[in-house]
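The freezer alarm interrupted the setup, so I double-checked each line after restarting. Inputs confirmed:
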Amino acid sequence: MTTTVERTEAVAPVSSTSDKSRAERRLGWYLAGPAFAVMLLVTAYPIVQAVFDSLFDYRLTDPQNSAFVGLGNYGVILTDSVWWTSFGVTVLITVVTVAVELVLGFALALVMLNALRGLRPVLRTVILIPYAVITVVSAFAWQFAFSVDSGFVNAWFSFLGTTADTDWFGTQGSSLFVICLAEIWKTTPFISLLLLAGLAQVPDVLQEAAKVDGATWWQRMRRVTLPNMKAAIMVAVLFRTLDAFRVFDSVFVMTAGANNTETVSFLAYRQTIERVEIGLGSAVSVLLFLSVVLISVLFIKGFKVDLSQARGE
Amino acid sequence: MSTREKVGWGIGGLVIIVYCLFPVAWIVSLSFKSSDDIANGQFLPTVFSGANYEQILVGDAAGLFLPALVNSFGICLIATFVSCLLSMFAAYAIARLDFPGKKLILSTALAVAIFPVISIVTPLFNLWRQIGLYNTWPGLIIPYLSLTLPISIWTLSAFFREIPWEMEQAAQVDGATPWQAFRKVIVPLAAPGVFTTAIIAFFLAWNDFVYGISLTSTEAARPVPAALGLFSGASQFESPNGPIAAAAVIVTIPVVLLVLLFQRRIVAGLTNGAVKG
Amino acid sequence: MASIEMCHIVKQYGDGYPAVNDVSLDIADGEFMILVGPSGCGKSTLLRMIVGLEDITSGDMVIGGARVNEKAPRDRNLSMVFQNYALYPHLSVYENIAFPLRLAKVPDDEVRKRVEEAAGVLELREHLQRKPANLSGGQRQRVAMGRAIVRAADAFLFDEPLSNLDAKLRGQMRTEIARLQRRLGITTVYVTHDQTEAMTLGDRVCVLRKGVIQQVASPRELYEQPVNLFVAGFIGSPPMNFLPASVDGTSLSTPFGTVELGAERAEKIRGHDLLLVGIRPEYFEDASLIDEAKKPHGSTFTARVDVTEWLGDAQYAYIPYEAPAEIAEQLKELSRELDSDQLRTQAVVSIDSTSRIREGREAEFWLDTRKVHVFDPKTGENLTRDAEAGRKLTEMAEEDRVEQVGRAKV
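Predicted 3D structure, all chains:
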């Protein structure tokens, strides 16, 4: 008799524990659900809508004549040199800025790591200033510095052959140079902070062991430090690449796309917001989105970037 | 470290300081140039003048700048608050509870963070016009969540993971009710993380330009960066550069203050979450 | 003050695995009970069920005569010292210790008096205003103890409180805990995997294995009369040696010669052929250093010594031996279960520190055959356990405890 009592006792609580874990699951989704739903709402919905819109020849000023054109818009874009120019410019800006930022950011991180104790907090504070300054403000600062009517660069660099009316924003190459400068200035600090965190994670004993093993400073850097912070480097490069690919603010402020400095984001903006060509603009947006997805996939599959590293775990 | 190395790293440090502050110093300097002085070709103004500040604060351009400043503060603070609130619940669930979908939520946040903003703006532009959110505060607050929410979730989850949650249990053994344990132990431990997350989220919202110029048309909702980008000066004959520089300085002050006050926390938050929007 | 009674306690997780399986254990008022076992044996789970941080799947938990299964931790009036101390990082040492009193809304004067008193006992007076992050490991440990003793709790619970300290500090804190417990005379449950702590601190020790109690007894009884292979192997350092043996009349033949058991014990192992003999290292000795009078109580054998370790006050010699594959496999399994990783079958022999036996040489050893135990390799059961002798040892320990508590209270 006692055994039967015990058995019923034993069965009931078991189901209560699974109740408990079910309750935990439900609570988990109750808590995280709203944030999840909002994220989907503000991104998934628009991109689906964009894909839909991109299949129509649809102009906001002329809604009656909206017509289904299938992939026609994509055909128009991909055969137009405007698209390929802006795509090329975007790739160029991305490659140049990320490469320079990586090298420069690593140098900054090394300085911050090795600077005197008293200087370190100062450096960590000033390095955040470019990060915190609004992109538009940074773009203006660099534009004004180089511009003919308010800049000082031409005067300062006259020994390199600049004159008072050297127009930096008059040609594609020099315009892109200034745009890249502004982008690099603004975002290098972020990279350097990520790399500094990566550097700090390489244990000192490894350095000491390498010293004992007879490695020079450069060998220690290349064979010990860099391989051990590969994850931090890849995460920094991935995020910066995707970020740079979306470049828009600096271009808008500095050149407004003049002299073939239009980027993909800017093209999409111009088509949609200025020319209200919703169909064409959406198609550009979708192409931009696909490029970003492609870059991410290449990075994650190709370089095996472990994004859990991004959490510093 | 030898003295020579010390000096070398010290010089490196000075280079960093110049690197970071130079463009900021330049825009400040420019903002104090009078309209005749703008084209002097020098870094510093010949005479310091407050004319540009006067113009944007009380003069002709005040009607454009001041409402934009109010819009920026209002919209960014609300967006920051909402995303902190939502992400607090989400991060708690991710750090504390065991439920399927954790990974899904974090990956979604990551995907949203790398999402090209312009791809969101195109359909929203159309939709907001149809449902009347175009050129309104909510019309910006909602898309701003796509900027602030992902980073808030990541940063906050990283912070919450580091909270010694067994403290809550220790407090209960010490005689605390669950509510007391939460209020007296968990809240003081979690508050710095939430605060840091709020600062970083605010930076992102404050920095926005694309949504600002695309989804607004008048000063009813246009935030400062968009107003700056579209500002063309009081008259066609006067260079707008001076007033723009002055406005740029004013919008930079809040973020620089935040940086100076909370430097340590921001660095921790950025590298913990390791995601930039 | 309270006794703690556990009656058929079961803890089953979602996947149905019982972390604690049908544990019944009575802890007397004022007793120092140790829960010990290798990692994953359920000892911490059991402790957390006592304090209420873990739900009880079935069974009754009775503290001070009242069933507490459904009570929240705060209603059980117990104090606990956590493994990583669980000090509140945002509170000063003073406020950490005062925390339970603040929750109970004790007036400030009283709080100050009691915190200072606890701080005095634990020598924390000069650290009261510091934050936990600025304390050393030993100091943090004492703050955690302070928080536990400041409240008049019914019992103390310790969850491996010394495992984060270095060896020297661990020894000091161990005696400190023992002194404090006797002084306060408070019921204490202490979880550890360290058998030195188990042996030195406990009035009684409860050995757990995979959620099941193996034996509850005084340290002496565990040591001298273990119920099975697991307890015998777990208690003692260096551990007990297990040698394969085959029965030969009233004696056993082992790799180290013949062990004579005598008629009484031989009776207990009748019907078995392959057995395990358990011999503690100190039952051996260098044969050349043994009194002639003592010699007949044991047997002598020669063996080649692999390694010797001279420790000043003691000396260990390691002697490899061959074991049948089946036995070797079982011994390996056992050592894995005991969290050790024995690579080879070898016996550890404790010899006098003056012994001239050196590694690589053949040497003659003496073995005290009166104290060996014989285990059934299949069930692990100790076939030669003398329950009566064991009971006496535990009774003696109980008498000692009553005497000590009585003296501390005067």
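Quick read of the result. The CA atoms of residues 91 and 156 of chain B lie 6 Å apart.
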